[in-house]
From TrEMBL:
Pfam families: PA, Peptidase_S8. PROSITE patterns: SUBTILASE, SUBTILASE_ASP, SUBTILASE_HIS, SUBTILASE_SER. It comes from Lentibacillus amyloliquefaciens. Residues 181-621 form the Peptidase S8/S53 domain. This is Lactocepin. Transmembrane segments: none annotated. One of its GO terms (biological process) is proteolysis. Belongs to the peptidase S8 family. PANTHER family: CELL WALL-ASSOCIATED PROTEASE, SUBTILISIN-RELATED. Residues 440-511 form the PA domain. InterPro entries: C5a_Peptidase, PA_dom_sf, PA_domain, Peptidase_S8/S53_dom, Peptidase_S8/S53_dom_sf, Peptidase_S8/S53_subtilisin, Peptidase_S8_Asp-AS, Peptidase_S8_His-AS. Residues 1-24 form the signal peptide. Keywords: Hydrolase, Protease, Repeat, Secreted, Serine protease, Signal. The active site is at D190 (charge relay system), H256 (charge relay system), S581 (charge relay system).
Amino acid sequence: MFKKVSLVLFVFLLAFSHFFHVSAAEITEKTLQENTAKKNHSESQTLKETTDPDEKVRVIVELQEDAPIEKATEKGVTFKSLKPTEKEELQNQAKQAQETVKNEMSTEQIEADYLQEFSTVVNGFSAEVKQGDIESIKKISNVDKVHTVNKYKRPEATPDMKYSKELVQAQQSWRDYGYKGEGMTVGVIDTGIDPSHRDMVLSDETEPAHTEESVQEAVENEDLPGEFYTEKVPYGYNYMDENDEIVDNAAGASMHGMHVAGTVGANGDEENGGIMGIAPEAQLLALKVFGNDPEVEYTYGDIYVKAMDDSIKLGVDALNLSLGSPAGFVNADAPEQQAVKRAVDNGVLVSISAGNSNKFADGFYYPLASNPDYGVNGSPGIAEHSLQVASYENTYMDVDAVDYTIDGTEESAPFLSASSTHPSDYVQKSFEVADVGLGYPEDFEGKDVQGKYALIQRGELAFTEKTLNAQEAGAEGAIIYNNVDGIVNMATDASIEIPQLFMLKNDGDKLAAALQDGQDVTLNFNDGTATISNPDAGKMSTFTSWGLTPNLDFKPEITAPGGQILSTLNNDEYGLMSGTSMAAPHVSGGGALVMQQLDEEFGLEGTGRVSMAKNMMMNTSELVEFEGSYVSPAGRVRVRCSFMLPCLHRQW
């Protein structure tokens, strides 16, 4: 029976694997088993070596007594609907219980550096303790569990919002139903937000849910660490660095959180270069969980939980977590997954990105039948009650453009920049061009490329090798043009110090032909831009994580634009990024619009509110096909269609 079920599952999963990249590489079961055995032995050995009882570990101590948010749920109400005196009483009870446990730890001579306290979504605290003391802590009265804290890496993205709104029907929803997120609040748990950006505003006629006065009152009464910033971003805090610097401003900052925030709710003037997000009149909470130290590329699970804890106190409607760790495991007792469940139970939609790891053994034809668990969906998005989001490609791309002159005739060509150095970093704007074929070292022999841009055709050598050869030859920059139609994301390297640009085939061929004919070619970088069609428009993004979870849940549940998305960056700037991180905010923003309607029409609360919003979006989504097979989860989110369900317009 087991073999029959495994075969059925395997054949079923193959239908979902057709659209992913495959290579000619082969692997045998014996090789995989040998490698797995070596890996397991290595990990086992490492584990033995690191279980030092005196080693400090970061833990969350969870108490047996229910968290305040659970007590509200048991009463059939949401935490934010409780009277201030009721909230205060529940939170004080939790804090007193935690203090009692801490005192007993002190009595037992258990050394601890206390870190975070949770008094809403979890009843407990985090601390650094000796590994050998964990069992003693578990024996203390009223302690339920001691969780080792997970570590999460800072999210990375490759730095068309204007077009992705149409794909999820946001504009049609604004026009036909009038919902733009008024009165709704979305918490962005990420790398930070720049509240001074020109697009981070509310319209004059919008009445905010949170005012400076109400936020200050919440900070005082709820013991919140953050403060009020602007009407659009009424609250923020840097939970990792424990300060008020909520802008992602470290050296080499990705501005990932700012990009996500813009997708959720930017409210710019598109006629004058600004952008609008999915819920432009919603307010955003800047819940910064990654610090500004460039040497610290991670955060911790207790930081996540603390940010969620505080967002519940502020009455958030939706949370966006465009982050996580790949190949997550479903553990219903994990604090992050418990926090997601309890938030959902209190009427908060939690939209989490699926991750950008495709699937286990990506690059091979199919996973082995003997290893059916090959999904690498990220955690905490695999939590049962989250709404996990996959990515598909945007319709258009806004990219940089360079003007070029061939014997006095001027034209323009779009390009993508891969390295950390951009042409705009230079004072000099005009450069000559030298054609160096495929970019082999011998292709540079006898050619003067000093101070010029090297024009290199894609093929045979790696992108980095071509660029490094140009750099070694003294080129000022490298332009690699495609040898087939379409675009690719070029690999780069930290040792590349010159601009590394990618150009479309037609434009590269034109420049190469002119140079081979002996014509003069000059590049002029004048900070121009161009809008080009995305050759993969409408397709599932090749990077998006997929596959069953370890407990056989279907994740992710829904799809949104995540490939080639233009959104806000710090200091009134904008940029393209790709990833499921860019897809999740389309859903949290869209979910805010749907819940706005549900609040007005039905007044739903708690789990019913979130379940209705999720079901509306999933049941009206559009399936994505590839070669005759459905490859999306429920499908591409369509917000306007959610409003059109007959059940919403029936006269009861």
